[in-house]
Write a structure and sequence with these properties.
2 copies of one chain form a homodimer.
Chain A lengths: L2 H19 L6 H8 L6 H4 L3 H24 L6 H18 L7 H9 L4 H27 L9 H22 L3 H14 L2
Helix pairs in contact in A: 1-2, 1-4, 4-5, 4-7, 5-7, 6-7, 7-8, 8-9
């Protein structure tokens, strides 16, 4: 197996475990075991656990782009429906995992955001990329009269993404779809109206 | 020093460290050192780190009641202003700690909610207590015509608390007051109107 594919294997195996267990709570040996990669090879691929964590953020972001952000850029004519599809797809992913996982980026933010400057800077950019995409969609929805004309689309995008992260957090302790349904109801039924 | 006060000392010292560093990321020795309590005495007071964590949730909840929930029950005549005062007081606490800490309950929920059933059950109750208090305040605000009559006060309370938790999460990576200001603007300027 070449160097890149072993590295990818480690990151892929880690992504699932860390999304469920947390970054600090997951040991390197556990990741290597799950990836079926020899013990001790971790530091051949990553300088440190932090260095590895920063690459993991890129991996998660790539995953979110493939699975979710594509809905914001789809050929669907209604800009508002594109946003709906984005959150519905995100909800389906949570349902698949029995409402236990939450957002991989949000989880890392909660664990490392207040602590580690390299993570904080990287996660900040990642969130901003996401809200820019949502903001663009809202800007177009506003131009076509689908949402409240008085809203600032980018401020609203920030509020919406933050509220979604909070709904995911609550979902984890409720182990239920209710906080996500409550989010959709309030955002689409009230905030954007 | 008697048994209770040593135990309190351990929990108080831990509360600050864990609020900033996370539960899994904080070692028992580190807590004992900060509490200035002899090494090895931890298991005299707590059966396990989990058992200790569950007592910590009670401690945090007590703190939130003293510092924040009191505003929801104050003698201030406007019910809506009571809710504003609650979130303003919460914002001031975050400002004091340079926007690094977030909500101690939310942090624990993110870290342990998807994983540990005892934490999940306890945190679920804790969140529900909080939203019941907010919901009551909204119900009264609605009766006195201060907020939108069409809202369900308890569903809205859930949405508001979840959105606040999300705003705190984003605050940690932004290291800025902006997500909290954005939250207040949208909740009081749009959601409740």
């Amino acid at each position: 197996m070449n160097k890149e594919s072993t590295k990818d294997k480690i990151i892929e195996a880690a992504a699932t475990i860390i999304n469920e267990k947390g970054f600090n709570n997951t040991g390197i040996q556990e990741i290597l075991r799950a990836a079926d990669v020899p013990k001790g090879s971790f530091y051949f691929y990553f300088r440190s656990k932090e260095d590895f964590g920063l690459e993991l953020v890129d991996y998660y972001m790539h995953f979110l782009k493939e699975k979710l952000v594509k809905h914001l850029k789809s050929s669907e004519r209604s800009h508002l429906n594109r946003l709906r599809n984005f959150f519905n797809a995100a909800l389906e992913i949570q349902k698949e995992h029995q409402f236990r996982r939450g957002c991989p980026i949000g989880n890392l933010a909660q664990e490392t955001g207040g602590l580690n400057q390299a993570f904080q800077a990287k996660l900040k950019i990642t969130f901003n990329r996401m809200t820019t995409e949502i903001g663009r969609c809202l800007e177009l929805a506003q131009k076509s009269g689908e949402i409240d004309a008085s809203l600032d689309p980018y401020e609203t995008a920030d509020f919406i993404l933050n509220s979604w992260e909070g709904a995911l957090l609550r979902m984890k302790v409720e182990r239920s779809i209710d906080p996500l349904i409550g989010f959709e109801k309030m955002i689409f039924g009230k905030v954007l109206k």
